[in-house]
Amino acid sequence: MIESVRVRQPATPAGSVDETGQAVVAEPRHWRDGWFGPASERPFQRRAVDVLRLLLATAALIVLSLRANTLPRGERGLFVYFNTLPGVLAPLFRALFAGGTMWVVGLIVTAALVGRRWRLAFAMSLCGVAAWVAARVIGAIVVERESLRRSLHVVTHLSGATPHFPQARIAILVAILAAAAPYVSRPIRVVGGILVVGAGLAAMYLGVGYPRDVVAGAVLGWGVAAAAALVFGSPGGRPTTRQVTLSLRQLGLDASDVHLAAQQPFGATVMLARDPDGPLVVRVLGRDATDTQFMAKLVRSIAYKDSGPPLTATRLHQLQIQALTILLARENGARSPQVLVVGKAGRGAAVLVERPYVGTTLADLPGESIGDATLDSVWEQVAPLHGARVVHGRMNAGHVVMTADGPALIDFDRAKLSAASDQRARDVAELLASTAALVGDERAAAACARVMGPASLAAALPVLQPAALERSTRTAFNVRRHDLDERLARLREHGARVAGVEAPELQRLNRISAANLGMAIGTLIALGALLSQIGSPGQLWDAFTGADWWWVVASIVLSLATNLPYAIALMGSVPSSLPLWPTTECQLAMSFSNLAIPLVGGDAIQVRFLQKQGLDLASAVAAGGVINTVGNAAVQLGLFVLALALTPDKLTLHLPTLRAEVLLEYVLGAVFVLGVITAVVVAVRQLRERVIPPLARAAGTLWAVARSPRRLSLLIAGNIGAAVLYAFALEADVIAFGVHVSFWTLLALSIAFGTLSALIPVSGGGTAVSTVGMTGALTALHVPEAAAAGAVLINQVAVTYLPALPGWVATRDMVKRNYL
To answer: For residue 28, how many other CB atoms are within 10 A of its CB?
Structure first.
């Protein structure tokens, strides 16, 4: 079946050639194509999605390791069900268990000896060995008590078999198959997936793996393959020129000289070709291009500010949206490429074919040759584009082509429909900065104001920050990184004068004095003395010496990992896109400033970071303060109620009673004070002009988040992730002292005492109160005093004090990179 939108009739194919100069034929050139699929192996690349795979696998292994020596009722029932199936099925399950091994060995031998894919054979072999070693090392570290695992020894089908965490054979199978996935065809991947599932079920039947062991083995193998792809690179799953030529033929295009473009964007393959009427640009999304798959695209849309094309469910839908933005721009008067066809041929790749403009990009022209009339004509292409509620996404001089008939816009792969005002402001800021690098601040700002109007220029000024601009725009200024901030500050000031407004100012960073830092360190010493009064110092020391320090290390890792969900929550509280890793580094930097200056230092860093990302001061304060605080409070309350409902322990809350009339008095008093303040602001013109516009922008930020399902999802998921990781960190510290407490109980206590400590604006005060309260609560749950005090003290050090060390490094790095 052919799905397409065409604007020309089918033509008889001319003699097309591939990248090797061979004639194109419809049949596969070799039977190996059926095994190893269409992936063009070069150029090899290190993909961001592999970083995310490795991080997710590491986090999942840590969580699974926390209960490696326990077997919940549900897992026990699943294991016993498969393990007690009739013995007549033993040959079948033994064949399944061995079949996966034979399959991956056959893949390696076929790849090396028959297919001559030496790199593939090396990658699979290396991943298999690495997965086996990693499984043994993790098992030796995590699983030290074998009593539980030997307790079900009597029901296993293999003599002398004992389940191991993680299941090594499953890890090897998944590692080899995941390493081969970018190289092999889809049928081979499907068969491998079926064999992995069969091997997992066989492991439970044969008694060599519990469900948790099987899952951990699969996660380990997946992570090992991701690590290998990061170290050595992997093919991006690009279709070959031969495939693209065949697809174009099916879509009715007479294309020849199909070849890979020199520069490749994320998420697609760009090829150049020709037809009888001239050159063509072909954007291709193949079914084996993993970065265009829905989940990978979803993850990248969270991880990166420049997340690539808009998130869509299918690759054809993605290209259809891109074609629609081009057609809308063209219909409304902007000069954009001519769309010839967009469609999907059979089960092959989705393609978008454009007729490009021939000319020189604005970025390649010398500044002295660009007159005011040329600048005005460039901005005149932006006005109708935004009039059609379309934003380009990369509106800089490198994406404006100067033709004989005037400027034209190209590369709509980042374009969006129904764009909000802040996204249009980013387009204006990008082009303003790009043209200022060519012709100077005065001429660039004047041209923007003449065509777009002073209001559009004023709205773009907060976005003139290094972190908010494209890399090509930043490098066009040809200044050092430290000088770029000052250069853009001059552009903001000149643009403000032209627009008749005040230049936006950045939030000042609070300096952390030696006295405040000394107070924070002194608090840690005081906590040790305070906890020594809870139990005997000798017992406390004995508890420390007997602790399992591997669990303490896991607690520290989990505590540091909370910066990631906090960053995701912050990304959900702002209307514009934020890059994940710098946002995570910002949360880590806040650990240092919050230690010495509670409630103030971290907020200042966060607001300044958001301003550097292009938000105005009011929106940055609203996003980092109001939205994040309200979202966190709502999530914490919901989790707290859920934890109280699910905990097997009896937790009694003693809450003070409040009469209805007293509550009504408080509400009326607050309304009266708020009304007086509002009346004064409205009555005094100077206050009205200074207060109402920022409040309006802040309200707009709040409303934009409230009506965006994506942002609400990020805000809720981030806060849930942080709370759960904190609870797991506390559980790891408790397990380190040989004690077990329900996760739901620890989640409730972590939320309760964490909220209480956050309300105390004294350096170290909240930590002291939380530590003493948590120790008392654990003691009330029949945890020995020494173990409770030791677990809580280590947890507070891991959560509050140790993150300040990498936080200091993160602060210096962010200042160096102009994020602060």
So the answer is: 11
